[in-house]
Amino acid sequence: MTSTGAQRAFIGSFTTSGGRGIVQASVDPGTGALTPTAAVATVPNPSYLALGRRDGGPVLYCVSETARGAVAAYDVAGSVPEPIGGPVPVEGADPTHLAVLGDHLVTANYGSGSVTALPLAADGAPGAAGGLLRNEGAGPNQERQEGPHAHQVVVPDPAGRWVLNVDLGTDSVRVCELDPATGRLRLHSDVRLPPGTGPRHLVMHPRGTHAYVLGELRPVVTVCRWDAAAGELRPVGECPLFPDGADARAQPSAPVISLDGRRLWAAVRGTDTVVVLSVDGSGERLEVLTSVPCGGNWPRDLVLHPSGGRLYAANERSGDVTWFDLDEEGVPRRAGAVEVPAASSVLFV
Question: How many CB atoms lie within 10 A of CB 39?
């Protein structure tokens, strides 16, 4: 198989666990192999990354997952990432995820259970937080759900106004609306999942009609219908990742869907596996097909190469990124790995 598209990858990591910050790597177009070429560590714990474009060039954004949460921006048009200004506080604790929505950068702040919107300047630099929306509530798991824990923000339609906020602590997905003029966030609707699910991340179907929500505390995928015009998300079913009974070690982390919407993959920490699911033509029926080893320990992130032919797992505790070729049935076959201490996410450019 010959890969197309991305020639570089950026890998987030936890500097407090030995990571080198944001690691830049070249991507072999034939094999998919990653070769680290540079690293920048201007902020601690750049655990998750997002890509934007300002003034016609690519801009890389990262969270700084710390108690004094922040974001940072980098010009990646050249051979090495160059900081654009300094880090900017998000007015929330432990941001774990971020996304670009128009002229704003939106973050999910796990520690404080909030969502922040920051305006973006013409050069891509984030400005002071203009919108802060605090989540409310708790769940039945007293250790993990004592309060809200916003874990992910997803822009289901880059041209729209909605932001989906996945909250592990309150067993909910919140549909938020961003006012582009003021940067203020407003809660539009709050979709509740079964108590104790602990939703972590979701992924949208390529058609934009469905969302698949991955539970971290209860290893299931919840299928939801998405109405972009009304900004409504409605659960219509769920599929356990372990049909014969959940493994007590299982802590699912990242869902990925194929370009044609026929396969869904879920990384599972604890069992250190990638679960492969089929998706029917309607987008509403899932079935577990098989699972394979993730190639390391504690797969925090799972990413599909833009070509659609390879998966990459960021294995945090073993400190590596493993890549897999996908066969005709979408089953991953390990093809290689590269050492990246405390790896937490992968982004292709």
Answer: 17
Give me the amino acid identity at 218.
R
How far apart CA 157 and CA 161 sit, in angstroms, is 8
Shortest CA distance to 325 belongs to which of 47, 38, 28, 13? 28
> Of 258, 257, 273, 245, nearest to 213 (Cα)?
257
Owner of token pair 């060039």 = 57
Burial profile 184-215: b = 16 or more Cβ within 10 angstroms, e = fewer:
ebeebbbbebeeebbbbbbbbbeeebbbbbbb
What tens digit of pLDDT does each residue of 163-222 get? Answer: 999 999 999 999 999 999 899 999 999 999 999 999 999 999 999 999 999 999 999 999
CA torsion sign, 182 to 185 to 189 to 191?
positive
Q: 182 is written with which tokens?
A: 């003021």
Query: Percent of the chain beyond pLDDT 70?
Result: 98
CA-nearest of 240, 36, 29, 50 to 155 is 50
Q: What is the mean pLDDT of the chain?
A: 95
Contact 296, 315 (CB under 8 A): yes
Q: What is the DSSP letter of 16?
A: G
Helix, strand, coil percent content, the chain, rounded in steps of 5? 0, 55, 45
- Residue pointed to by tokens 């940067």: 183
20-61 per-position pLDDT tens digit? 999 999 999 999 999 999 999 999 999 999 999 988 789 999
Average pLDDT over residues 131-148: 97
CA-to-CA distance for 65 and 67, rounded, in angstroms?
7
The CA distance from 168 to 329, in Å, is: 32
The distance from CA 155 to its chain's CA centroid, rounded to whole angstroms, is 11
